[in-house]
Amino acid sequence: MKYFKYTVLFIFLLCTTTFASTQKTAAEKLAGLLDQFTTFQAQFSQTTMDVQEQVLERSAGTVSIMRPGQFRWETDNPTHQIVITDGNTLWVYDVDLKQATKQSIAKSPMNPAKLLSGHTNDLLKQFTVHLIPHRTALVFQLIPKKPNQQFRSIAIAFAHEKLQSMQIENNAEQTTIFDFSHVILNEHLSPSIFQFKAPSGVDVMR
């Protein structure tokens, strides 16, 4: 009887250790893929769907990232909007409306560029990482460790060690998919592209 109890305990501990090891391996793999680049450039398409998979919104544009903390997310279609930060201040510039909003990057909501441009250690402190089986890509699921008002989960997919797509599910059961193409890693980027000065005639809201 004692032998049986010890055997069950051993199996339980083994399973628990294996699960923890798998989580650690997934987190380490994700960290390795993110840490391989200091700069990232790509074109993106964005699709937002409701719970019935009806398309609510589509957009497209370009993204530039310089780690840590700097990014430029420029939507060209259907409207022209630029989201840009130097790592301290976040600007949202609606070109067509001639309006710009300024806020601290620390207080801004999570978005793909902010997630990808941040420190990997900070990311792993906020999320539990799981590796999702997939035939042609490495897919990681990120679950917030603390209740999050913005989203339930994030999926990040890599193909040939390059970021391929991100999928964000929010608490309203809407899913936003970002597909990346023409990805360029570790090419020099001028810090000036992450600076913003409101053009003449633009209303600035703080």
Question: What would your notes on this structure say?
Answer:
The chain is of the alpha+beta class and 206 residues long. It has one domain (2-205): Clam (outer membrane lipoprotein receptor (LolB), chain A). Helices cover 23% and strands 45% of the residues. It contains three helices and twelve strands, in the order αββββββααββββββ. The chain has helices at residues 2-35, 112-117, 120-126, and strands at 39-49, 55-66, 70-77, 81-85, 89-94, 99-104, 127-132, 138-144, 151-159, 162-170, 175-185, 203-205. It has a twelve-stranded mixed beta sheet with strand order 7-8-9-10-11-1-2-3-4-5-6-12. The protein starts with a helix and ends with a strand. Residues 2-22 have low confidence and may be disordered.
Tell me briefly what this model is.
The protein is of the alpha+beta class and 206 residues long. It is 23% helix and 45% strand.
- Spell the H/E element sequence: HEEEEEEHHEEEEEE
For the CA atoms, what is the radius of gyration? Answer: 20 Å
Q: Report the end-to-end length measured between terminal Cα atoms.
A: 70 Å
* Total of helices: 3
Write down the CATH topology. Answer: outer membrane lipoprotein receptor (LolB), chain A
- Low-confidence residue ranges: 2-22
What shape does the CA trace take?
globular
Give the CATH architecture. Answer: Clam
Report helical residue fraction. Answer: 10-25%
Q: Pairing-aware structural class of the strands and helices?
A: alpha+beta
Compute the number of strand runs: 12
Q: Could you name the CATH homologous superfamily?
A: Lipoprotein localisation LolA/LolB/LppX
> Which band does the percent of strand residues land in?
over 45%
Number of domains: 1
Largest sheet: 12 strands, mixed
Q: Report strand order across the widest sheet.
A: 7-8-9-10-11-1-2-3-4-5-6-12
